[in-house]
Amino acid sequence: MKSAVIICNGDFPRKEYPRYLIREADYIICCDAALQTYLKHCDGIFGKERIPDAVIGDMDSLPVSLQKKYSSIIIRDTDQETNDQTKAVKLALTRFRDISSIHILGAVGKRAEHTIGNLSLLMEYAREYDLEDMGISVDSVYDYGTAFALTDSAELHCGKDRKISIISPDNTLTIKSEGLVWPTDKVVFDNLWKATLNRASEDVVKLEFSHKSIALILLD
């Protein structure tokens, strides 16, 4: 199966792993002005220019010169009820039927509200598209970590001493845990910080949800 990478217009990755994901991607989608940033880094990643497969957004921040030059791959979507990252995820799921993974890069940085919004949307994608049944993983990768969503109990093969945070907007959810330094069994998810800044005490962390819900996992 193949992979798709979505480039958002936050901090472009400097470290090798996220840049490796770009280099190995079968499909690349840029969000609006992220095209400009992506093109600046192509030579350092590929040794040449690699044209993305699509550029999507309302085109309010992409220079007109680039809109004209890359008009054949631009998809103008002026829907103001959703953001460009979500538009790109929908495009990847509908256009590239042979993918098994979507990696979102550049979703964090520059503005705190964009970071919070983009990462929280991972939970919406997991719930709305039932990604597990589709056999597609979606994560956000940045220089200092990876974020992904869960909708039910799971085992995380993350490695001992890995830093891990759990965030959920569902204050009725209880998550029993094994393999964490600070168990989450009694955590009430009534604020975003409540199960953050934890650490794995075992190679495998087991999380048992009291019911199907949504939670965001952040690993360093």
Automatic annotation (TrEMBL):
KW Kinase (keyword) present: yes
InterPro entries reported for this sequence: Thi_PPkinase (IPR006282), Thi_PPkinase-like_C (IPR049442), TPK (IPR053149), TPK_catalytic (IPR007371), TPK_catalytic_sf (IPR036759)
Enzyme Commission identifier(s): 2.7.6.2
Record-level GO BP terms: thiamine diphosphate biosynthetic process; thiamine metabolic process
UniProt entry keywords in alphabetical sequence: ATP-binding, Kinase, Nucleotide-binding, Transferase
GO molecular function (one): kinase activity
Class in the EC hierarchy, top level: transferase
SUPFAM superfamilies: Thiamin pyrophosphokinase, catalytic domain (SSF63999)
Limits of the Thiamin pyrophosphokinase catalytic domain: 20-126
Pfam families in the record: Thi_PPkinase_C, TPK_catalytic
Residue ranges of every copy of the Thiamin pyrophosphokinase-like substrate-binding domain listed in the record: 149-209
Domain of life where this protein originates: Bacteria
NCBIfam families given in the database record: thi_PPkinase
Protein name per Swiss-Prot or TrEMBL: Thiamine diphosphokinase
